[in-house]
Write a structure and sequence with these properties.
The chain has 123 residues and is mostly beta strands. It has strands at 2-6, 9-12, 17-24, 32-38, 45-50, 57-59, 67-72, 77-82, 91-98, 112-113, 117-122. It is globular, with a radius of gyration of 13 Å.
Length: 123
Amino acid sequence: VQLQASGGGLVQAGGSLRLSCAASGRTSSAYAMGWFRQAPGKEREFAAAINWNGVITSYVDSVKGRFTISRDNAKNTLSLQMNSLKPEDTAVYYCAAAKTLFIPSDNRGFDSWGMGTLVTVSS
């Protein structure tokens, strides 16, 4: 499966952005999917994930209550609604897929990655 993220940009602190990820190729709804991010000078970290049917979600503590992950299997898309953005949310955001119905317990379970989209939050 090929993944392409979009929707990044420059936003002021407190603002909102919505990221999208389009899946193509050998797509299947039987994938868990996730968003990861990599801030300048830091390692890539998990941000949010969702199971195959959208019922189960998981978030890193720093984005809980501000970010919402969702998916539309009919359109092969994954989204991340980001509200109340903070300067520390500045990062390149990547979408990823795992060939499993449920969210992997280990980030290494995500084996398909798209090119990232840059989110910059100004203070």
